[in-house]
Design brief:
The chain is of the alpha+beta class. It has two domains: about 5-60, no CATH class; about 110-264, START domain (Alpha-D-Glucose-1,6-Bisphosphate, Chain A, domain 4, 2-Layer Sandwich), CATH 3.30.530. Helix content is about 25%, strand content about 30%. The protein has five helices and ten strands. The chain has helices at about 10-15, 65-80, 125-135, 135-140, 230-264, and strands at about 20, 25-30, 35-40, 115-120, 150-155, 165-170, 175-185, 190-195, 200-210, 215-225. The strands form two sheets. It has a seven-stranded antiparallel β-sheet with strand order 4-10-9-8-7-6-5, with helices on one face. It has a three-stranded antiparallel β-sheet with strand order 1-2-3, with no helix packed on it. The longest helix has about 35 residues, at about 230-264. The N and C termini lie far apart (about 105 Å).
Length: about 260
Amino acid sequence: MLTASKPFSTSRLAAPAERRECGQGLLLLCDPDGHVAIDSSDMLQSGTGSPVAATGWKPIFPVIDAKVLRASLRLLERAVLRGYPGRLPRLPRLPRPPRLPNRWTADAYHRDVPVLEIVTRIPAPPERCFELSLSVDAHTASMAGSGERIVGGVRSGSMGLGDEVTWRARHFGIPFTMTSRITAYDAAHRFVDEQVRGPFGRWWHEHRFTEAPGGTEMVDLVEFSSPLGPLGRAVDVLVLTRYMARLLEQRNRWLVAELADEQG
């Protein structure tokens, strides 16, 4: 700061100046004697102090200890898993995938959402395959291994457009409850069941039936995702994709055996 008692000398300011640079890019314009004359913000400073011996910098933010950071992240993770400070917000529903030909890959869907495609040949007409696939009694019998049972909604017979059913089953030793609804229905050709309430962030299952030599080609298209963001996506990739594929294949084997017996 300039003072009246110690004015700046014009002869010193007129002298050739030199730049001194610190490690973080702060430039100081100094007079030949090493006194600061003008700093990098163009503010005029006193030139009568002690000669500048070194330059440096001081961080604006405090350095966070790595152990403290890890402990804080663990506490945050536990709070999220326990549902604190309340229920997690429901994820927005993704747009329905477009209708595609019989042969396609998961790349046609959202790349961040797992998609299963299972093609099964059944020695029975499409009408009968369609009807049995909509039967809650058939589904219960095919999922007997996981103890799946009906606890609400349609309890017997075949489902129709808008019908809901609530299932309870045990997977990985944990009981789960899921309510699904038939949201699309094209007799003998296609229907879709979607989760209304349950453990998934998203569950969309399309069943398609096409006449083929010797019977029917049934295609299951399943788009699903777990909640909890990145943690849920890791669970989808590492565990759920293979597990859900095995469950669908188990159900389809039951349908094939049942319909083959009917055809004799």
